Amino acid sequence: MQASSGEVTAIIPVWNRRDLLERLLCALPKQSYPIAEVVVVDDGSSDGSAEMAERMGARAARLGAHRGFAAAVNRGIQESHTPLLAIVNNDVELAPDWLEKLAVTLGPEVWFVTGRILQSGAPELIDATYDALCRGCTSWRMGHGRADGPAFRAPRIIASAPFTAALFRAELFDGVGSLDERFESYLEDVDFGLRCASAGRAGKYVPDALAWHHGSATLGRWHPETVRLIARNQLFLAAKHYPARMLWRYLYPIIVAQGLWGLVALRHGQGWAWLQGKWEGLRRSTEFRSPGPRRLTNSLPKILRENERDIRRVQREAGGDLYWALYFLLTGGGTK
User: Fold this and answer.
1) CA 225, CA 169: separation in Å to the nearest integer?
2) 155 backbone dihedrals φ, ψ, rounded to 5°
3) If residue 271 lies in a helix (H) or strand (E), which one and from where to where?
4) Degrees, nearest 5: CA angle 139-144-145
5) Interhelix angle for 251-267 vs 271-283, to 10°?
6) What phi-psi label fits residue 220: left (phi over 0), alpha (psi between -120 and 50 degrees) or beta?
7) Which among 21, 23, 1 is positioned nearest to 11, based on CA atoms?
8) What is the CA 300 to chain-centroid distance, rounded?
9) Beta-strand (E) ranges in 137-227?
10) pLDDT of the chain along its 336 residues, tens only?
């Protein structure tokens, strides 16, 4: 496939950490595929990130208050006028050919692409590849924490890409819609992936496109607010995409997955944050219950079965963890 001839806008959502933003802005001009414009969306930063971005030649869009990652990305999409959009977190480092390797993969049947993202502090470990969601409505950033190896070196068609660092055809957002800002931050990309699957818009994982991610550089992976938002948004996903009969069908896997995740949060000293998130998720779930038919209803069980098979494959090939071992032991893995 020939490289896409479309111009690219790089969209960088930021909430403080101007040191990371400065490093990324210095690196973007070194990409082998040209970037037409850089749009930095300031999500209520207090450290002068927007002003620094403007001094470095980027266009800054200011939200005025902290509204979350989804709102920042949506504003960046609105501010962009190119056919291709590269969405990149400020705590990401990109290989010089990252954008080029992704751009050559886009085509009529490939609407978005993402690469192999390694951990910045431990580059022998995977940070992210693509996302998979289980029946219990917890997701895994496939391979996170596993040693980089053969399990992550093959290109593949995917349903969901992490918005950590990915390239999209701009028209995808016209057809599927923007990110759901009710999620604020975390799992909004999984929700978007489910909507892409519903619309028949597939993506691709391109392992040769390398990036390195610091990971939760602003708050930290087990910060109470991070745990609260993830715990809440897991229930938002279920309320939004599972019709009533599917909620009953998957009630046991949901209880298992959510309970196990709560134990993980408790082990990291964040049991209270987990409870707060679950309470808010339950209290607000009616906001996400659509009275009309869900386009994804018929295909969702198949998507979830495929996701669980893929999780089990990677766990088998790259090393397993206790969470998924217990989940599959208790639920049977959705193979039926």
Assistant:
1) 32
2) -65, 150
3) helix 271-283
4) 140
5) 150
6) left
7) 21
8) 19
9) 139-141, 156-158, 165-169, 203-213
10) 334 558 999 999 999 999 999 999 999 999 999 999 999 999 999 999 999 999 999 999 999 999 999 999 999 999 999 999 999 999 999 999 999 999 999 988 999 999 999 999 899 999 999 999 999 999 999 999 999 999 999 999 999 999 999 999 999 999 999 999 999 999 999 999 999 998 999 999 999 999 999 876 455 578 999 999 999 999 999 999 999 999 999 999 999 999 999 999 999 999 999 999 999 999 999 999 876 555 566 789 999 999 999 999 999 999 999 999 999 999 986 444
Pick the CATH number of 8-213 from 2.60.120.200, 3.40.30.10, 3.90.550.60, 3.90.1150.10: 3.90.550.60
Residue 225's CB is within 10 A of a number of other CB atoms, namely: 17
CB neighbours (10 Å) of residue 208? 14
Contacts of 55 (CB under 8 A, 6+ apart): none
Residue in the structure block whose two tokens are 């196990």: 260
3-state SS assignment for residue 250:
coil
Three-state DSSP at 62 gives: strand
Helix H or strand E segment including 71: helix 69-79
Give bridge partners of residue 122 from the DSSP assignment.
119
- Tokens representing residue 59 in the block: 């266009």
CB atoms within 10 A of CB 203: 27
Length of the chain: 336
Q: How far apart are CA 171 and CA 174, in angstroms?
A: 5
CB atoms within 10 A of CB 121: 11
Residues 6+ apart with CB under 8 A from 66: 15, 43, 44
Give the separation between CA 297 and CA 203, rounded to whole angstroms.
20
**Residue ranges covered by each domain of the chain:** 8-213, 224-334
283: exposed, middle or buried (C-beta count within 10 Å: 0-12, 13-18, 19+)? exposed
Q: What is the largest CA-CA distance in the chain?
A: 57
